[in-house]
Amino acid sequence: MKQFSQKHLLGIKEISTEDIQLVFETADNFKSIINRPIKKVPSLRDVTVANVFFENSTRTRISFELAQKRLSADIINFAASSSSVSKGETLIDTVKNILAMKVDMVVMRHPAPGACVFLAKHIDASIINAGDGTHEHPTQALLDAYSIREKLGSVKGKKIVIVGDIAHSRVALSNILCLKKLGAEVMVCGPNTLIPKHIASLGVKVETDLMKALNWCDVANMLRIQLERQEQNNFPSLREYSMMYGLNEERLHLLNKEIVIMHPGPINRGVEITSAVADSKHSIILDQVENGVAVRMAVMYLLAGKQA
Amino acid sequence: MKLIILNALICDIESELNGKYCDLMIKDGVLQEIEQSKKKAFDNSPKEYKRFDAKKALLSQAWVDLFANFGEPGLEQAENFESGAKAALRGGFAKIMLSPLTQPCRDSKSGIQNVVNCSEKLPVSIYPYGTVSVKAAGKELSEMYDMQLAGAIGFTDGNHSVENAGLLLKALLYLKGMNGKLFTYSNDASLANGQRIHEGAQSTYLGMKGSPSMAEEIRIQRDLELLKYANGSIHFSQISCKQSVDIIKKAKKQGLKVTCDVAIANLCFTDKELLAYDTHFKVIPPLRSQSDQIALWEALADGTIDAIVSNHMPIETEFKNLEFEYAQHGMNTLEAFLPMLVQSKPAHILWENVIKAITVNPSNILGFDKPVFQVGAPISFTLFDPIHSGQFQIKNSKTKNNPLHGQTVKGNVLAVYHKQKLNLF
C-alpha cells in the first residue's frame, strides 16, 4: 500500500505530487463514505487529536472536527487567542502540555508564518497545519485542487486564476504550490498593492486586469479580502475594490465561455463576489466545503497510518 | 610583562613585514624588536622574557569592533560587561564600541561614565557610544557634548534609524562643531515590514512580508544629501545590500566624508538560511540575497566598506526559541567572529584586506592612534589560525544564539595581547 511520505502536513511545499495524488485517491473513498446513511468509520479509533487554534476559525475548525468524528477519533478542542503568547506561555509549552495528556495528532492554526514548522522541531506528534499566518493552508489547497479535479476531470493543464489579496493569503501560496505540482497553469490577479513583488518567482503569471484574467482562465478562485491581516490600507475602499475586482454576473456574461467559480470562504458577499455569482451554477463553493471534510479525513487517515 | 613571540606570520597590509614570518620582543606593552624569523632568535635575551611559539599562525594588530551590544545596564542576564569582555577577547578583540541601546539607554553623562569606569578592570577596552537623540527616540538631541567630555567615542541611535531628517541634520551640524562622529543605521521603517526577512523570492516562498533593499537605500540617499548640506562626516552602520554599496562608493568618489561598515552576519549568511524559519538567522539588518553578499565582500576588498562589525547581540533562549514572528532579532557573534569570517571569505580576498577592516580602518574612523608594528610603539595584537578545524562552542558569552554553536568549524583565535597581558586560549 502506498504511504504518505511525511510525518506532518506542514505545507504543500514539503509534500510530493505522489502524496497529493494519494490524498485525492483516499479522499475519493471517504467522500463516498460520508454520503452513505452511516457516515462513520472506525479508522481513527483510539487516536486522539487536538485541535489547537490560536486564531479564530469557524469553518476550518468545524470541517476538521467533523472529519475527526467521521473517523471515530477522540477530539479535544483548544482555542486560545494569539495574545496568550505575550501572557506568558509559549507555543511549545502550550502544545507540550496538551501532548502530555497523550495526544497523537495536532491540528494547529496560528497567526505566525512558520509556526507549524517551528513546532514540528520540538514535538513528536504529527502536526497538521490548519493555517499559519500568511504562509500556508495546505488542506485548503488540497481540497481546492480536489474540487477542480472533480469538476474538470483533472488539474493538469488547466488554467487557474487566483483573484484578490495574494499578499495576505495563505490560501494563495498553498494553492499556487499545489496547483503547480499538479501541472496546472496559475495566474494571480489583483491590485499590485496586494501582490508580492516577487510572486513571479513561484512560476505564476501576474495580471491586474480582472477581465483579461477571466478570459484566460478555466477556473477563478476568488479570495476573501483579509482586512484583518493588513497593516496598512492597500486599496482605498471595499467599494472601489469591488468595482475593480468584484466578480459579478455582468462580467461573467461578457466572457465567451463558462468558467468555474471557487471561493475558500467565508464570502464577503458583494465585495469579491456577488450573491448571484456565488449561488450560480458556475460556482462550486459548496462542493469545496463538502470536499473539505473528505480531504481532511484522508490527510488524518494517512498521517495516522504513518504513525502506526 | 616581558614576552617573545616566535614564528608569527605578520598580517598587516600597512607593514613592510606583511606576509613574513617574524619574531617579536615585547616589554610592558611596547614593541622592543621585530625581525624576520630565524633560528635561535633572541637566544641571548634575558630569562624573564616568556617565550611563545606562534607556530606560523597569523599575527595582526589587535582587533577593534565598531559595534556590539552588551546588556549592561538593564539586560545583564543576556550579557554584562564582564561576560561580554571575555567573549570579545576569546573572539580576538581588544577594543569594543558599545551600543547605547541599553535599559535605560546611554543618552546622558552618567551612562557613559559607567562604561568608562568599568573598562579599566576588564581584559579588553570598552568604549561607549552615546545616543544622538534622547532615549534614542528620534525626537530631540541628547547632550552629546557632555557625553563626549565623559568619554563617549561617538554617537548613534543604534538600530533605531533616525526617522526625522531635520533632527539628523541638526545632529550632523552640531557634531561637526564639537568634532564628534555620527554613526547611523539606515532603514526606512515604513518600507521595511518589521525587517523580518529580506524581500525576495525567499520571503515570497515563506509567506512573509519582506524588507526591500530600497528601505536601506532610500535612507542612505537622504542622509547623504543631509551630509552635503552640513558638510560634516557620517558613518553608515551595517549596510547590507548592493545598492547601498554603489551609492556609498559614488559618494566617496565625490569626496564626501563617508565611511561605512558591514555586520559579520550579512557577510557570512544569506536569506537562503531562513528556509526552515530558523530564528538564529533573524537579524537586523535582514540577511539579504547572494548577490548582495557577493557585493558586500567585493566592497570590502575594494575599500568601499571600511569595517566589519560583530553587531554582537546576545539573546536568551526564551526570546529566541519562539515562532519566527515573535523571536527577537540578533545573533551572538563575538566568539564566532573568526569562524564566520573563514566560512564565508572568498578565496581571492586576502586576509590582510579583511583584517584591515577590524584593525587599522576602525581605528582611523574612531580617531585612535594608528596601530603600527614599529619598534618603540605600543603594541596589542591578535594571533589567529584560520585553518584550524574543531568544534565551536560559545563559552564566555551568556547566551548561545549563533548557528555555528556546536558545529565543526574552521578558524581559531590563539591569543590576544592587550593591556600588557597575553591571553592564551
Please characterize this protein's 3D structure:
The complex is a heterodimer of chains A (308) and B (425). In chain A, helix 2 (59-70) links the parallel strand 1 and strand 2. Helices cover 40% and strands 15% of the residues of chain A. By secondary structure, chain A is α/β, with parallel strands linked by helices. A 5-stranded parallel β-sheet of chain A has the order 7-6-5-8-9, with helices on both faces. In chain A, strands 2-1-3-4 form a 4-stranded parallel β-sheet, with helices on both faces. Chain A contains 12 helices and 9 strands. The radius of gyration of chain A is 19 Å and the shape is globular. Chain A has helices spanning 17-34, 59-70, 84-87, 91-99, 115-120, 138-152, 170-181, 210-216, 238-245, 249-254, 275-278, 285-307; strands spanning 48-53, 74-79, 105-110, 126-132, 159-163, 185-189, 205-207, 219-222, 260-262. By secondary structure, chain B is α/β, with parallel strands linked by helices. The mean pLDDT of chain B is 97. In chain B, strand 6, helix 1 (81-91) and strand 7 form a beta-alpha-beta unit. The interface between A and B is medium-sized, with 29 and 21 residues.
